[in-house]
Inverse folding.
């Protein structure tokens, strides 16, 4: 293994070969994509609404369960006009990274 | 289209799956050592498992025209037992000259504990000593982000590691950027519920491009689909992507990454 440890800061620069391969990174128009996914997205929203209703009908309360606030925060992410909603949703449901973990583990 | 699945646990699958894979265009797989669904009690349990990976599965795959490669380690879940892990790591070199062993894997973290980290670092040492590529498992669900960052910290702090010979697997939307930015290969696992769908994998290819990006099924003993890679091929075709792009992700990239191993000598088993 090499002794060098290059961190290619520019490795996300799109290479020409990729541009030639993918003249448009998303070949479909927004309209076509909406047509393609509308029923599937509608069904998933219905599933979510029905699951929330089911929880509401259940005995007892989950109002204090922190996962309910996570779900509400997730719904708020859906409402945002941005192109990284999936990444934001993943981070919402992720444990926090502690940069000092090695010191904490004495490693 | 011919394709290669770089992460598939065939010891957990029936022979009919090999036939189905062959019919779907699979020409080769690589099988990282993993958790069998129970904790093994001794180093001899792993020795038998490694014989299965290096002797039995290659024969089973070959009878369907599929090349079989493997990676050896003690997985992150059993790594909580540091003493057993050290015994297994000491035994692994017995198998490193087997013809189908590509490197060390799938090492990684499960619950991001101190013991798992110790065993991960000792696996890195083994890979460096034997100049072998590394295949890395990242944790599931809520632990993935933290665990991936910890893994990148450990890799990045070892100047002996050649990043072009390391695959960080099971990336998702919140981890793929850091893995690629730091020069490693990234694997997307198409797995029900806990990992990535073919649609989301296609999204990541569109956002990040095909360089150093692999797709796998991680088919195993749990609910999983060993033919998930063809599902990704189908999704990319439906979106209108070029055949050359699809082939790069599902065939050329695995070949390029496997070629980092001194043991890898590719001949299409069907020719």
């Amino acid at each position: 293994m090499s002794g060098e440890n290059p961190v290619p800061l520019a490795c996300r620069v799109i290479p020409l070969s990729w541009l030639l391969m993918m003249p448009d990174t998303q070949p479909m128009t927004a309209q076509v994509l909406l047509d393609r996914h509308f029923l599937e997205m509608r069904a998933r929203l219905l599933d979510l609404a029905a699951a929330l209703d089911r929880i509401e009908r259940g005995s007892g309360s989950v109002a204090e369960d922190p996962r309910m606030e996570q779900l509400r925060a997730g719904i708020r992410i859906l409402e945002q006009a941005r192109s990284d909603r999936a990444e934001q949703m993943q981070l919402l449901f992720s444990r926090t990274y502690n940069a000092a973990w090695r010191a904490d583990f004495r490693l | 289209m011919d394709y290669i699945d770089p992460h598939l646990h065939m010891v957990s699958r029936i022979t009919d799956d090999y036939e189905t894979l062959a019919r779907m265009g699979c020409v080769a797989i690589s099988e990282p050592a993993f958790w069998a669904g129970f904790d093994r009690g001794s180093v001899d349990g792993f020795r038998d498992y490694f014989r299965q990976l290096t002797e039995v599965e290659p024969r089973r795959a070959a009878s369907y025209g599929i090349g079989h490669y493997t990676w050896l380690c003690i997985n992150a879940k059993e790594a909580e037992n540091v003493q057993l892990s050290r015994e297994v790591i000491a035994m692994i070199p017995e198998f490193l000259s087997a013809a189908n062993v590509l490197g060390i894997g799938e090492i990684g973290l499960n619950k991001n504990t101190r013991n798992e980290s110790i065993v991960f670092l000792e696996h890195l040492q083994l890979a460096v000593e034997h100049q072998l590529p590394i295949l890395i498992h990242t944790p599931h669900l809520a632990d993935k982000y933290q665990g991936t960052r910890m893994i990148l910290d450990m890799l990045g702090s070892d100047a002996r590691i050649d990043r072009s010979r390391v695959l960080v697997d099971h990336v998702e939307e919140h981890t793929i950027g850091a893995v690629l930015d730091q020069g490693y290969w990234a694997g997307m696992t198409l797995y029900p519920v806990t990992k990535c769908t073919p649609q989301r994998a296609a999204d990541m290819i569109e956002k990040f491009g095909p360089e150093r990006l692999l797709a796998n099924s991680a088919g195993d003993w749990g609910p999983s689909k060993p033919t998930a890679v063809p599902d990704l091929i189908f999704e990319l075709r439906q979106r209108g992507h070029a055949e050359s792009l699809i082939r790069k992700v599902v065939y050329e990239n695995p070949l390029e990454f496997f070629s980092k191993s001194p043991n890898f000598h590719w001949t299409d088993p069907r020719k």
